[in-house]
Design brief:
This protein has 71 residues and is mostly helical. It folds into 2 domains: 37 residues, no CATH class; 34 residues. It has 2 helices and 2 strands; from the N terminus they run H-E-E-H. Strands 1-2 form a two-stranded antiparallel ribbon. 0% of the residues are buried.
Length: 71
């Protein structure tokens, strides 16, 4: 990875108008535009697992709250 040399941090307004001309996506970190890297397969697997766990947890909480409404 490279460290870009930027003398003045880029403002948010300048960042919104800025384009590197290569069609890549960037995020602004401490005034420095940094390219956004696509997730790899392992990142996607972790995200899928977290979503699945969240759905299960939500269902359990919903079921518990409904059981408490019966009385």
């Amino acid at each position: 990875m490279y460290a870009p040399v930027i003398q003045d941090p880029m403002t948010f307004e300048k960042f919104l108008a800025w384009d590197d001309g290569k069609g890549r996506n960037f995020e602004l970190r401490d005034g420095v535009p940094m390219p956004i890297v696509d997730p790899n397969a392992k990142h996607e697997d972790v995200a899928d697992e977290l979503c699945a766990l969240s759905i299960v947890e939500f269902a359990l909480c919903f079921k518990a709250s409904k059981a408490g409404d019966d009385g």
